[in-house]
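Quick one, tokens below. Sequence please?
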């Protein structure tokens, strides 16, 4: 179990991987509107010790493409079991930014479109949870207006290695989202409004992602679809 860094839990409103309510994640993601998919929860091999995660080192300035599959390792996070990818933050002398980009599969077919909605947990060098993002941090990138060659969701986190002593980054998703596979029954406008608070369409347990590391003062660089 990943322990919560107590000195920051009150400030960020999170209580560790197991205690952050999944219902809040759904509410934060109302603005995400994709096609319905039949994604099902995964059952990859579980790893219950974050100190034993396989951490890939991120470059100090550059990008890394990766794929989360049904065979990726999984962990019992605060929002349920999820496949994940773990990274070791670069040894940078000062502040920098990390962009986590998740590319849509089948973006031209709304009824088939799906995406891995990423959540990021940042851990200290002694594997305490310093911060965790939620879906309100995600924004949608379009090739016409943004910096991707294919529609994608992006979240950006700032890293201050001196002030926060953060050392590791873990990308995962919320199990509750994967179980919301269909639209609620709509009988009247009030029912439709209520149902919108409890459904997220297009969620997938797998996905193609990219992490970009850049200096804090620089704008977002051009991201590319890792499948091309």
């Amino acid at each position: 179990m990943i322990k919560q860094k107590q000195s920051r839990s009150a400030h960020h409103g999170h209580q560790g991987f197991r205690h952050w309510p999944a219902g809040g994640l759904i509410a934060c993601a109302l603005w995400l509107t994709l096609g319905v998919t039949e994604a099902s929860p995964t059952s990859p091999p579980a790893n219950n010790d974050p100190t034993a995660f396989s951490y890939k080192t991120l470059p100090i300035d550059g990008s890394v493409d990766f794929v989360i599959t049904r065979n990726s390792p999984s962990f019992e996070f605060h929002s349920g079991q999820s496949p994940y990818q773990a990274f070791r933050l670069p040894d940078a002398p000062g502040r920098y930014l990390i962009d986590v980009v998740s590319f849509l599969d089948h973006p031209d077919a709304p009824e088939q479109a799906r995406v891995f909605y990423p959540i990021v947990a940042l851990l200290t060098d002694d594997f305490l949870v310093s911060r965790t993002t939620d879906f309100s941090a995600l924004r949608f990138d379009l090739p016409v207006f943004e910096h991707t060659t294919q529609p994608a969701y992006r979240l950006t986190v700032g890293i201050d290695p001196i002030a926060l002593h953060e050392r590791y980054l873990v990308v995962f998703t919320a199990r509750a989202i994967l179980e919301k596979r269909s639209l609620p029954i709509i009988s009247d406008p009030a029912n439709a409004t209520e149902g919108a608070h409890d459904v997220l369409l297009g969620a997938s347990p797998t996905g193609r992602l990219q992490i970009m590391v850049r200096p804090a003062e620089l704008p977002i660089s051009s991201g590319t679809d890792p499948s091309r």
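Residues 132 and 197 are 22 Å apart (CA to CA). The first strand starts at residue 3 and ends at 4.
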